[in-house]
Amino acid sequence: MPRGLYYTFDCTPKRGDLIQFRPDILHWNLALERGYVSSRTQGLLKEVAAISGDHVCWNDTHILINGKDVGLVLSEDSEGRPLTHPQGCLTVSSNETLPLATDTSLSYDGRYFGFIASEMITSCLSPLLTESL
């Protein structure tokens, strides 16, 4: 996600929307402890990759949505610390989404903590002014 200025608004997220959210407390605390986010961070910003009815599968190395490989799943982070992730296949329920950074496999996102409940989403975002990293 490029650094920049984003407009935030309430929405019912659709596939491809940018959202701000906090994962469950266990995964949020892990992100804080490992320095993936700072204590000033209000939430993660990711794209909605899967919505209600989509079929998501994790294996040891990849995540697939509706049979399409959408990215790598790593076993450890850039500092060699272990990363866990769901295993097997699940269908997204009506009150869930799968947040994913679709432009990189080096992101801490739904490939590691799975689906998030709709209540965890604080807003949708639209870029106003961004810079390339």
Summarize the structure.
This protein is mostly beta strands and 133 residues long. The protein is 10% helix and 38% strand.
Q: What is the CATH fold-level name?
A: Umud Fragment, subunit A
What's the number of domains? 1
The shape is globular
Which sequence of strands runs across the widest sheet? 1-10-2-3-8-9
Descriptive account of the structure:
The structure is a single chain. The chain is mostly beta strands and 133 residues long. It has a single domain (7-130), classed as Umud Fragment, subunit A, CATH 2.10.109.10. Helix content is 10%, strand content 38%. The chain has 2 helices and 10 strands. Strand 4 (55-58) and strand 5 form a beta hairpin. The N and C termini lie close together (9 Å). 20% of the residues are buried.
List the helices and strands and how they pair.
Layout (H helix, E strand, L loop, with lengths): L3 E6 L8 E4 L3 H9 L10 E7 L4 E4 L3 E4 L2 E5 L15 E4 L4 E5 L9 H4 L2 E2 L3 E10 L3
Antiparallel strand pairs: 1-10, 2-3, 2-10, 3-8, 4-5, 4-7, 5-6, 8-9
